[in-house]
Design brief:
The complex is a heterodimer of chains A (115) and B (116).
Chain A (H helix, E strand, L loop, with lengths): L2 E4 L3 E5 L4 E3 L1 E4 L6 E6 L5 E7 L5 E3 L5 E5 L4 E6 L8 E11 L2 E6 L3 E6 L1
Parallel strand pairs in A: 2-12
Antiparallel strand pairs in A: 1-4, 3-9, 5-6, 5-10, 7-8, 8-9, 10-11, 10-12
Chain B lengths: L3 E4 L2 E4 L5 E7 L6 E7 L5 E8 L5 E2 L8 E7 L2 E6 L8 E8 L6 E4 L3 E5 L1
Parallel strand pairs in B: 2-11
Antiparallel strand pairs in B: 1-3, 3-8, 4-5, 4-9, 5-6, 7-8, 9-10, 9-11
The chains are: A mainly beta (115), B mainly beta (116).
């Protein structure tokens, strides 16, 4: 079975400072992992995905995440936060039901960016 | 550009009426689409997997007679909330997978349903 835990429900940073959103996963096999961002009343936008290639994954808008198998982690980082980064972020692991892929969502982390 | 188009973005209806939400795949033919529900301040919950030309697969606890899914073409899936009640008020999001794949990756902008 697959599961994902986002360790912080709320993260607050100042504009221009680094961002760290933490995610741990559990999977009985090599997982595919994703980070999505959701702005208020909007759908989800894919930031990046890991699918067993390079462990350091670069995404859009300056975000990146590192897959660490030994720590079962997939933390999302950005060197310098921008006001427009304020949103809800979801760490997601892929699962399977029959032959159909399913995404299993973490509970989400609200990122607040202060001026 | 957008890969998935979802309509309407917002709908208000009276209790007891039915509401239809459309999800269109714009860039490719999607044999599989997914419907999610999101309550305020909560994560997304998969409701059902929509399969073109066959019956949808519902997750445990989701009433198939209440949430009717039709996937009549490779680019369109619809979710109909029948006899809506205030507790059905939520944010509904559809998604489609990559070409040739069957995992959801691209999401619509969602539909905010309010039942009065």
């Amino acid at each position: 079975a697959q599961s994902v835990t986002q360790l912080d429900s709320h993260v607050s940073v100042s504009e221009g400072t680094p961002v760290l959103l933490r995610c741990n996963y559990s999977s009985s096999y090599s997982p595919s992992l994703f980070w999505y961002v959701q702005h208020p009343n909007k759908g989800l936008q894919l930031l990046l995905k890991y699918t067993s290639a390079a462990t350091l994954v670069k995404g859009i808008n300056g975000f990146e995440a590192e897959f660490k198998k030994s720590e079962t982690s997939f933390h999302l980082t950005k060197p310098s936060a921008h006001m427009s980064d304020a949103a809800e972020y979801f760490c997601v692991v892929s699962g399977w039901s029959g032959n159909t892929g399913k995404l299993i969502f973490g509970q989400g982390t609200t990122l607040q960016v202060k001026p | 550009g957008a890969v998935v188009s979802q309509h309407p973005s917002r709908v208000i209806c009276k209790s007891g009426t039915s509401v239809k939400i459309e999800c269109r795949s714009l860039d490719f033919q999607a044999t599989t689409m997914f419907w999610y529900r999101q309550f305020p301040k909560q994560s997304l919950m998969l409701m059902a997997t929509s399969n073109e030309g066959s019956k949808a697969t519902y997750e445990q606890g989701v009433e198939k007679d209440k949430f009717l899914i039709n996937h009549a073409s490779l680019t369109l899936s619809t979710l109909t909330v029948t006899s809506a009640h205030p507790e059905d008020s939520s944010f509904y999001i559809c998604s489609v997978g990559e070409v040739g794949g069957n995992s959801p990756l691209h999401f619509g902008n969602g539909t905010r349903l309010t039942v009065t």
